[in-house]
Specification:
CATH topology: Rossmann fold
Distance between the termini: 13 Å
Strand order of the largest sheet: 2-1-3-6-7
Structural class: alpha/beta
Order of helices and strands: EHEHHEHEEEHHEH
CATH architecture: 3-Layer(aba) Sandwich
CATH class: Alpha Beta
Helix content: 40-55%
Shape: globular
Amino acid sequence: MKLLHVDSSVLGANSVSRQLTAEIVAQLRAANPGATVEYLDLAVDTPNHFSADALGIKFGQQAEPTEAQRRENAVSERLVSQFLASDVIVVGAPLYNFTIPSQLKAWIDRIAQAGRTFKYTDKGAVGLAGDKTLIVASSRGGIYSTSEMGQAMEHQESYLKAVFGFMGVTDVRIVRAEGVAMGDAPKAAALAAAHADILAVTADAANEAVAAQTA
């Protein structure tokens, strides 16, 4: 099993999402000792935000790519190749201002590539990266999942399901800790619930990844 571990929180050791992704990866490795893990810390090594240079080399805007286009294309190719080579992707996604961190969005912009992770046909878009499991470690200061207003304000889990679904990844599993900024007791309860979810989610993901490799 090839595992890609992605963190995006800017809070370092104080990050709940980082705590959750570390536990998820540890459980997956325990269930599959032969697993290989690659790690991306997007808060430390953030791809440049998407630009004309990042897009230009794909569309041949001039006879020869510029040095900036070559550089940005190399970043995109490294990231999309790493993503495509992975069986399980574990993504730490804190809720920032009702959505994901811009660092995580910058990574998604690099891996969402026509011809690599999706394609357009006469019947619409088709995802090309469907043979993967995505486990999202979702952390939220408040509680958004239990009210209509909260769900309407949330563009974090819903966005990740939509964009990875567009790329064909429909096996998306959420481990959620919400209400972590509402006091010690709510935070402890949220972490306990997330821990239980991690045990269930990782057991299923590890078993399915092994089955896929031996099929």
